Structures are given as C-alpha cells and as structure tokens.
Amino acid sequence: QLQRQCGSIVHIGSIHSQLTKPGFTAYATSKAALAGLTRAMAVELGGSVRVNAIEPAAIATPMLEVGFADAPHLKSQLQAFHPTGAIGSPADVARAVLFLLDPANSFLNGCVLPLGGGIHSRLHDPA
Q: Of the candidates 55, 54, 53, 51, which has an alpha carbon nearest to the alpha carbon of residue 16?
C-alpha cells in the first residue's frame, strides 16, 4: 500500500547509533537498527516514498533537564563538548525534519543526518 503513494518518512534516531557510552548497549543497538531500517526502506520504497533519518545528540528537553537537576555542572560540560558550544533545541530537530521533508530535497533518500553541533565529528581526547 505504502509503495503506491508518494511521500516522505523521517525517522528520529540518536547519536548513539554511531557514538555511545557504557550502559547504553540496548539503546545504541536499537538506534543503529533504526539507521539500517532507514536505508533499507529507502531502497525498498525509493520509487515513491523517500525515507531519511536524523540522529540528534543532546537536545534541551525536560528529560535532559531532569538529568542536570542534581549535577548542574554537567550541563556546562556537555555544552562545552559540542563543537558549537551549545546543546541543541527542539526547534533544531524540527528544522532538520522539515529540511528532509521538503520536496525541493527530493534526491535525498536513505540519508541518516547527524544533528549534533559537530559532536559526530569530534574525537574525544582526554589528554
């Protein structure tokens, strides 16, 4: 049914599909699977439906703020770790989704777009 229609699907993944930390095995695995699903669906449906994904890093949400409640210094550390010096906003996510949905970008299919203020390109060097 889906193949008979035109459209665009955008999956919301996570930076954890590419970069993760201890204790996130199941989450990282599920996000890596979502990236694979995005590419596979793009091939399967590509004649009529485009399928892309975004992989946000830290986004300023109420859930993230709860994590900083007991350790506010972690927020500034996380901001500093992003090459842009900032945590993303929900509006950043929305703009990325709109970009991928835009018919003017009709040749984008199977794209897994990093959305992390450059964190996907940063090599952590504790030295």
A: 55
Residue 90's identity, in one-letter code, is: P
Report the alpha-carbon distance of residue 83 to residue 10 in Å, rounded: 25
- Specify whether 25 is catalytic: no
Q: pLDDT tens digit string along 93-118?
A: 999 999 999 999 999 999 999 999 99
Catalytic residue among 3, 27, 91, 95: 27
Total number of domains in the chain: 1
Can you give the pTM of this predicted structure? Answer: 0.88
Please indicate, yes or no, if residue 124 is contained in any of the structural domains: no
Q: What CATH number corresponds to the domain at position 86?
A: 3.40.50.720
- Our answer to whether residue 27 is catalytic in this structure is yes
d(CA 122, CA 25): 21
